[in-house]
Description:
Elements: H1 6-19, H2 27-43, H3 50-71, H4 78-90, H5 97-105, H6 113-136, H7 143-167, H8 171-193, H9 197-201, H10 207-221, H11 226-240, H12 244-249, E1 251-255, E2 262-266, H13 275-299, H14 305-333, H15 339-354
Antiparallel strand pairs: 1-2
Helix pairs in contact: 1-2, 2-3, 3-4, 6-7, 6-13, 6-14, 7-8, 7-13, 8-11, 8-13, 13-14, 14-15
Amino acid sequence: xxxxxxDDLKTRFHESMEKASDFKTNPATQxxxxxxxxxxxxENYDSMSAEAQKMTNKLKExxxxxxxxxxxxLPDSPIKRTIGRHMRGAKGERVHVSSHLKKxxxxxxxxxxFQKKCDEIFExxxxxxxxxxxxxxxxxxxxxxFAKLGLLSGCIDELLVAYFLVQKNYPLQAFSHIRTCQEGLxxxxxxxxxxxxxxxxxxxxxxxxIWKKYKRLVKDKLSRNKAREDIEGLLSNHxxxxxxxxxxxxxxxxKNKEDGRTQFLVSIGGTPNTREVFSSHVILLYTVLxxxxxxxASFSQLLNVEEVKKELSDAxxxxxxxxxxxxxxxxxxxxxxYESVKQDLDKSLxxxxxxx
Length: 356
């Protein structure tokens, strides 16, 4: 199919003028013909020659410039606001919710090495967790086992949602789901330590009051390593609660070239590539490992011990290797030493493994 040329556009425009009998005298008709020409150009833009595209771009700029000048003298009204929104859209400056919904719903392409490795580890380990879960489901009774199984199923769902948010560059939103999962895992650990506490938690009392009470019990009765405390702090400051730290991740500070004033650009539709994007992958996999550990600690007597030890050991190695490759090495190149963080995690993971 031949490309639409500049001559084709000119011919079409002259034909439109001739068809409109009052084109020379009626401003409304003139605007209609111009807008129709622009509509045709935008709808057929990919089928045009380079010169025809330039002509269409120039027509769009002229029409927008004309409208902006006339908009200045119009009184504020719903119609003026609506026109302004469409003008922003024409200039590519309007945020379209439909675009973000399509982005979230569409399959994503994993382009970075750390994304691909995270995907590989996550799917493999979550599948094993679900397999373990199905093998112990229905084989135990009692309030504590029911509470733990219910919490485990909720944790699985939270991490499935968090995975997609992480891979779509929505780390701050993923942190909320990861934090909910970690709170669930804390309760499981608490019920493993003192099964009787599950009775009140699963009772009919005020849910909010129970949540506050058990939050204190978790803090008082469970020990935390430094890595876990640091992660919890990051999740609270950058996802669960609306803090200024969370806002700063979404902001860019720009200098206006014309007047030198400072301007702030706040992102909508995900977070730009920052350290939070990288750390979200690490924290996601760390929480998967926590989930596997608590499931095994809760129901090891119903699982094959030989398989459990091997898989948990392999999962620990996978995680520490991922951490070393994509977090420690890049920071060391910048002159920062993060080896102590890895050592802390190694000790924590080995302690979990030795407890089986």
